[in-house]
Amino acid sequence: MISHPHLPVVIELVRQAGAAILPFWRCDTEVVAKLDDSPVTAADLAAHHLLLAGLQQLTPEIPVLSEEAADIPLAERARWTRWWLVDPLDGTKEFISGSEEFTVNVALIEQGRVVFGVVGMPTNGRCYFGGNGLGAWCAEAHAPAVPVSVRVAPADAFSVVASRRHSSPAQERLLEGLSERFGDLQLASVGSSLKFCMLAEGNADCYPRLAPTSQWDTAAAQGVLEGAGGEVLDLKGQALTYEARESFLNPSFIALPQAAAWRDELVQLARALD
Question: The CATH number of the domain where 191 resides is what?
């Protein structure tokens, strides 16, 4: 099993946050628009308060950056060397629509890199966790965790996992390039951080995201994917990192297996779009 002293408590906190969300699911919960027009519900806030209290109790010395409390000045964040990066409810739009494809995301960041991440699914109790050099695991509710790993060759058709809600002209061009290289693509559509988890489990080959995401959307699941033998690269081919910046938006990225024979071709395809 993955060894990090904080991990067991974080997994339990993620599960508790999921339990705090569920009473609001499929219950016509009131939706409020934030300043950036993204939706927030009482479920987001219930999970946020639970995670914030739990993480502050676990590690009083490590600051917490949560989507629901991100108004921390850059000058302060720039001094941090370690911090928790939290999305209390990733996939709020999925949650509002009644879909099961929303998650609770918690990552420990050190010097801009993910140490480990935990991604929990409130509706079924499944939990993914992992980190670079630590391995990656999936635990069903009330069952032992099993190791997961990426696949380095397509099973049948080349499978691309994409967002149901967020595409872009550049992303469509990348898919065209992949189709020319690999033939007909199998497109898998899933919400929230579960896109990374599909790759980590070996159920898809690549996840291109050439549309906006925020740091808290990706960090935890990037930890899972890196532990499973994958990587997340920007369009220049550099690892996606989380240094303190004025904006919380990520650059466009591609997530893929590190050891895939076609890795460099995909990076070249992506570079051509940059």
Answer: 3.40.190.80
Cα(262)–Cα(7) distance, rounded to whole angstroms? Answer: 33
pLDDT confidence of residue 111:
97
Question: What are the tens digits of pLDDT across the range 230-264?
Answer: 999 999 999 999 999 999 999 999 999 999 999 99
Whole domain around residue 260: which residue ranges? 158-273
Residue 211 pLDDT greater than 90, yes or no? no
- How confident is the model at residue 254, as a pLDDT? 95
Residue 152 within a domain: no
Q: What is the CATH number of the domain that holds 94?
A: 3.30.540.10
Residue 37: Cβ-neighbour burial (10 angstroms; 0-12, 13-18, 19+)? exposed
Q: Name the nearest CA neighbour of 252 among 189, 132, 169.
A: 169
Query: Residue range 117-136: average pLDDT?
Result: 97
In a domain, 1, yes or no: no
Count up the domains in the chain and report the number. Answer: 2
Starting at the edge strand that comes first in sequence, how are the strands of the sheet with 113-120 ordered?
Answer: 64-66, 82-90, 103-110, 113-120, 127-131, 135-139, 146-147
